[in-house]
Amino acid sequence: MVISIASQKGGVGKTSSTISLAAGLARKGKRVLLIDIDSQANSSKVLLQNYPQISKQQTVFATILERSPLPSHETSVPNLSIVPSHILLSNTDVELTTAIDHREERLKKELDAVKANYDYVFIDCPPTLSWLTINAFTASDKVIVVVSPGYFELDSIVQISRTIKEVKEYFNARLELAGFLFTMSDPTVNSKTSLQILRQTYTGSVFNTVIPRNTDLRDAHFNKRDIFSFNAKSTAALAYNKLIGELFQV
Ligand SMILES: Nc1ncnc2c1ncn2[C@@H]1O[C@H](COP(=O)(O)OP(=O)(O)OP(=O)(O)O)[C@@H](O)[C@H]1O
Ligand SMILES: [Mg+2]
């Protein structure tokens, strides 16, 4: 199963959720591949100790720009591999806009060749609705949309829902919205109201599990660790574990 983790807004917890779901399932013995297609390369920097030494040919850049096979690397988490990203991926939208091949299928084509080797593939998307995100959605079975507390969130959800619908219509008929994941929840009125509005607006599509605001997550990633190896008893680790149970029944 291939799952994109996306949002149209930045800093909502996409990368943290991708790393936690991928590492959590890998620690339960599942074979997992994480594909980082955000040019910020945040999940690559957390999961690969030697990230600065990796050339752009060893990243997803090679697949998106040169249509080469996906270059995967082992991580320090058993059963978890990663296709890292590269800063130069930030220029690709211009190139893809003028490409005349099936530019939306470059990732899908190479992922289809290797995905049978994995139980789960997660794609950490950039915070924009670009050709890179369209490549991710075209290669995916499902999209998890990450939402954090805030008044402008609902507008961005409308836009990303439209993109999912368009990709489904034009490029990938089997694409489904897995649901909305509410992250960085805290006891403030703003957070409670945001979640309430989300549940009222998208009844049945918001996951029961909510991820609390928890600084252990930031500290874990700062120390290049996943939350389960950093602090398995933290509220974030417990919540992501619960989410894995809710979504994948493992
Ligand atoms: N549940 C949480 N509690 C506290 N801090 C969090 C939580 N989730 C993420 N963060 C922190 O918030 C910041 C943004 O998170 P993250 O990088 O996961 O978001 P993102 O959506 O991938 O961002 P971008 O759009 O820039 O890729 C990071 O510093 C991260 O450590
Ligand atoms: Mg990110």
From TrEMBL:
Similarity field: Belongs to the ParA family.
The species this protein was found in: Streptomyces nymphaeiformis
Name of the featured protein: Chromosome partitioning protein
Domain AAA: 2-176
Task of the protein: May play a role in septum formation.
Superkingdom field: Bacteria
Lineage of producing organism: Bacteria, Bacillati, Actinomycetota, Actinomycetes, Kitasatosporales
